[in-house]
């Protein structure tokens, strides 16, 4: 498995991260995602991390990069499904993800994206 | 990673299979999914297998079981994102998935589910 699938949901894209990320996979995801945003004119990206028990600085940086990349291409990124333990660890470690929106689950994330897109 | 995440999208549930399935994971998915269908009163399940390069008889049987399980709980199952090579192999091997609906991608799968739910 060398690619993380990107699913199109209307004008948004959904990425569910389930596997342990490594450099190559993160780079491939960034490439695929930018290509898909460009091809589908997506207005938003939902990044589901509910399967991740651990979010370290590598994943944190990847999320920030994806968010920055999407923003340049006129798409908002919302991180959804973060586990409570992950949120606690991020705060305790002082890891911040500047400019990244979060929502409790995919539905709320999608509503948030819809609001952001409409007000633009 | 010992659980496959189940995402709620309105009245449907979305499951993206990215990792190699084994017995325990398949059983856990069946348990989780039936519990989620019951809790959320979901009317349909989208099973995204776009990340799978290989669908063998084990995965085929798991998909059939999930479909049967959902049907008992009044939810339709649609398998989406099957790779062309996977479709060819399934036909060549004579593997059938009776009662399982398929669609090209998540969007079409969701439309199919909406139609099925409305006509009931």
TrEMBL record, chains A, B:
Coiled coil regions, renumbered to chain: none
UniProt xrefs under PROSITE patterns: STAS
Pfam families: STAS (PF01740)
CDD domains: STAS_RsbR_RsbS_like (cd07041)
Ranges where the STAS domain occurs: 2-113
Protein name: STAS domain-containing protein
Organism lineage: Bacteria, Pseudomonadati, Pseudomonadota, Gammaproteobacteria, Lysobacterales
């Amino acid at each position: 498995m060398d690619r993380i699938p990107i699913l199109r949901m209307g004008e948004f894209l959904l990425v569910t991260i389930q596997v342990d990320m490594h450099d190559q996979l993160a780079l491939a995801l960034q490439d695929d995602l930018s290509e898909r945003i460009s091809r589908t004119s997506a207005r938003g990206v939902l990044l589901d991390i509910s399967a991740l028990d651990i979010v370290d600085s590598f994943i944190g940086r990847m999320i920030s990069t994806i968010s920055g990349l999407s923003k340049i291409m006129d798409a908002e990124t919302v991180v959804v499904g973060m586990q409570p333990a992950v949120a606690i660890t991020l705060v305790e470690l002082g890891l911040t993800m500047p400019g990244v929106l979060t929502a409790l689950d995919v539905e709320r994330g999608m509503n948030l994206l819809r609001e952001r897109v409409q007000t633009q």
